[in-house]
Amino acid sequence: MDTWLDAVRNLRNYCAHHSMLVGMTSSVVIPDNKDNADVLPNNTNLYSRLYALKKILPQEDVDMLAKELDKLIVKTKLNIYKMNIFPENWKDLYGKILSL
Fold first, then answer.
1. pTM
2. What is the pLDDT of residues 39-84, one digit of tens each?
3. CA 74 vs CA 11, 58, 62, 67, 68: distances in Å
């Protein structure tokens, strides 16, 4: 859990002080032993922060986060998949992350 909290804290700091979310590698997220290894393909990217958030947020917030991210991704002109910001199957992976 320490790595999840550290990842979320770093995400907050990047947003508040650097306005940069892509390319951050300041902390490593260690997966929960209960999860399949494939739900966290990279442990230092932005998606790994989603993993950490899903582990510590209440279910209602977890669901809202996924919906809001999906809306943002659809509206952006950037191809987040070609830029390796999120894995192409992030919604499927996100859905497979087990609750605590």
1. 0.85
2. 999 998 889 999 999 999 999 999 999 999 999 999 999 898 888 8
3. 22, 25, 19, 11, 10
The closest alpha carbon to 93, from 38, 45, 33, 42, belongs to 38
pLDDT recorded at residue 23: 66
In sequence order, the 6+-apart residues with CB closer than 8 A to the CB of 29 are 3, 4, 7, 40, 43, 44, 48, 49, 51, 52
In sequence order, the 6+-apart residues with CB closer than 8 A to the CB of 45 are 24, 25, 84, 85
pLDDT at 19 over 70: no
Q: What are the distances in angstroms from CA 96 to CA 34, 38, 93?
A: 11, 9, 5
* Inter-residue contact 53 to 65 (CB < 8 Å): yes
In this structure, what are the phi and psi dihedrals at residue 95, rounded to the nearest 5 degrees?
A: -65, -25
- Which letter does DSSP use for residue 27 in this model? S
CA dist 55 and 20 (Å) reads 23
